[in-house]
Amino acid sequence: MKTNLISISKSLLLSATLIGALFTSCDSNDDPEEPILVGNQEFYNVAFGVSSEGNSGTYAQAFTDISNGSISFDGEGFEVPSVRTARIYGSPSGKYLYNLSYGGGFLYKYEIKGGSNYVQLEETNVQIAMGTAYPRWKVLNADDALVHTINTEHIYVDDIYTRTDATAVLQRIELADLSLAEKSEVVIPHTEDGLHIWRIDNPTIQGGKAYYGVAKRGYDPNTHENINTTDYKATTLVVDYPSLENPTLLESEVAQGSTYGYRAPVYHTDELGDIYHLTAEPAKLIKIKNGAYDNAYELDLSTALGMTNVGANGWYYVGNGIGYAPYYDATIGSGSDDTTPWGVARVDLYNKTAVKLNLPNNLWMWYYQSGVLGKDGNFYMAIAPLGESGNIYMFDPQSTSPDGFTIGAELDNGADSFYLGVY
């Protein structure tokens, strides 16, 4: 009984950063060690992209069941407004779809009616508030989202370069009507390495703070060019929430490189209130506890998967310490190269393990953005090689097997097309 009470207590602390409005279920006859988490969405939104080069079209369709049948975007699908690939999120219920037209500077809210029927409810121009048509954003929960960008300025004193200042423009959005709430412009503290932050993204909220992933780089005043590097301590920007003020930086002692991800979530809070996030390359999961890095913790995906060097853009947390991480073999090439092979790993945060899942070869998941926890307790992803047919995969979070999944609906595909995810 004591074990069961602990499990129930942990489930009540489940972070709002999980995809979906989750609740627990438990069979008293089996008395499982951990509750089985399930989603309550009305629709599964499947998103599809066309053109892997620069600007690409984005399409969506909504289904009540994607565990069987077939899905095609040939003459089907709602075209989500975008200049470059749309940055979309689904509400926890699956009833609403949100979109940032990256390059257009507009936010949109749609009510999902099923199939290709998406009805626009709200539209908001965030370009004026952010000072750019290319901000990034993250839907946090059913109520709020954060939009963010970085402005940099190279500072010279008597014609001698001294430093680069970085200012974060931070804006909270109320999702009910896409209204602009708190806004802050904060100068980011400098670090001893002489680098500056030039990008932030994928925040999570915990304990009255917002935690953002970052990327850093240097500047050469002789050539007036930026210096790209990953040779810096993995860093997190922290501000008060919801005021979005009082910036501080956390630096890890066990991981290096960028932490902001790329179009996929990176920071998640578990049921105990600890934050776990990913670094890009080499891909590691590291931990923030009580507002500071826990440098005794790291899960190196390269080591756990028995590989030399693994890279990743983001990962998905489903509860009870279990998550799923798309990864690529960084010894072969960059994750953006369509010749670099990708896979998906089941990660166990608490046991510090990762398992390669037996998925098709020749996957390309550089643009992959989302998966959802289904009503059946499985985690749904849309998996297809670039330009080839694929399937919905329903991963069983309780299974440690490389074959811990069932195959759902077949996904039609075309040349230079790809699936962005399930929302």
Any overview of this molecule?
By secondary structure, the chain is mainly beta. Helix content is 4%, strand content 49%. It contains three helices and 34 strands. The protein has helices spanning 2-12, 127-130, 301-304; strands spanning 23-25, 36-38, 44-50, 57-63, 70-71, 78-80, 87-90, 96-101, 106-114, 117-125, 136-139, 144-157, 160-174, 179-187, 196-206, 209-220, 225-228, 233-240, 248-256, 267-269, 275-278, 284-289, 292-293, 299-300, 310-311, 316-319, 322-329, 342-348, 353-356, 372-373, 379-383, 390-395, 405-411, 417-422. It has a five-stranded mixed sheet, with no helix packed on it. Strands 15, 16, 17, 18 and 19 form a five-stranded antiparallel sheet that branches. β16 and β17 (225-228) form a beta hairpin. The longest helix is centred in the N-terminal third of the chain and has 11 residues, at 2-12. The model is unreliable at 1-32 (pLDDT under 50).
How would you summarize the topology of this molecule?
Layout (H helix, E strand, L loop, with lengths): L1 H11 L10 E3 L10 E3 L5 E7 L6 E7 L6 E2 L6 E3 L6 E4 L5 E6 L4 E9 L2 E9 L1 H4 L5 E4 L4 E14 L2 E15 L4 E9 L8 E11 L2 E12 L4 E4 L4 E8 L7 E9 L10 E3 L5 E4 L5 E6 L2 E2 L5 E2 H4 L5 E2 L4 E4 L2 E8 L12 E7 L4 E4 L15 E2 L5 E5 L6 E6 L9 E7 L5 E6 L1
Parallel strand pairs: 5-33
Antiparallel strand pairs: 1-2, 3-4, 3-34, 4-6, 7-8, 8-9, 9-10, 11-12, 12-13, 13-14, 15-16, 16-17, 16-18, 18-19, 20-21, 21-22, 22-23, 22-24, 25-27, 26-27, 27-28, 28-29, 30-31, 31-32, 32-33
Keywords: Signal
Organism: Aureibaculum flavum
Protein name: DUF4374 domain-containing protein
